[in-house]
Amino acid sequence: MTIELLFELFFLGFSIFSILLFAFFIIALIRTRINPELLLPLMDDPNSLFLDIMFNSQNQINETKQTPITEKELSILPKIQLTKEHFQKMENFLKNQLEGRCCICLEKFNEGDNITTLPCFHIFHSSCIQTWLNMNKVCPLCKTWK
Questions:
Q1: Where are the alpha helices (DSSP H) in the chain?
Q2: Around Cβ 134, how many Cβ atoms within 10 Å?
Q3: Which residue, 128, 116, 51, 109, is CA-closest to 80?
Q4: Banded model confidence at residue 50, pLDDT cuts 50, 70, 90
Q5: Torsion 122-92-94-96 (CA) sign
Q6: Which PROSITE patterns match (predicted)?
Q7: What is the distance between the alpha carbons of residues 142 and 2, in angstroms, rounded to a whole number?
Q8: Which of 142, 118, 144, 135 is closest to 68 using CA atoms?
Q9: pLDDT by residue (tens digit) across 22-38?
Q10: Is there a contact between 133 and 74 (Cβ–Cβ < 8 Å)?
Q11: Whole-angstrom Cα distance, residue 137 to residue 70?
């Protein structure tokens, strides 16, 4: 009975997808009939639609990146000075992150370095990440800010 149910759900999902795809096609067709100028860029360069989508996506990412971090947000980020004990406890973690290097300055983490951890759990030299976050409010590695 469960196989039959899964089979029905698969075809139901497939039909919903087909309906949505067909609706998208009809809307696009109507838009180009009403405004034929929308087709002109596509006729010049078939890759232009892809490039437009990529450009618009990049602009949305850049809007997030260009927002500098506030002093309050910066002050709540965890900061520590690396000691011998930290190194022993975090040895595997540090090795897994870019072979124990700060991805901004590419220098190895050393005992006595001040490090900051972002909400995504990536770590950086405090001075490096502060400079970075004053320009971009995203993690340099994963591009998120949680």
A1: 2-34, 40-44, 48-65, 71-76, 84-96, 126-135
A2: 11
A3: 116
A4: low
A5: negative
A6: ZF_RING_2 (PS50089)
A7: 40
A8: 135
A9: 667 667 666 655 555 55
A10: yes
A11: 9
Residue with tokens 């500098």: 68
Q: Mapping DSSP to helix (H, G, I), strand (E, B) and coil, where does residue 100 land?
A: helix
Residue type, 72: K
Q: What's the DSSP call for residue 70?
A: P
Strand partners, 6: none
For residue 32, the tally of other CB atoms under 10 A from its CB is 13
113: how many CB neighbours lie within 10 A of its CB?
19
- Cα gap 139→143, rounded to integer Å: 5
- Supply φ then ψ for residue 114, to 5 degrees: -90, 125
3-state SS, residue 124: strand
Residue count of the chain, please give it: 146
- Per-residue model confidence (pLDDT) at position 103: 86
Residue 139 has pLDDT above 80, yes or no: yes
Cα(30)–Cα(48) distance, integer angstroms: 20
pLDDT at 58 over 60: no
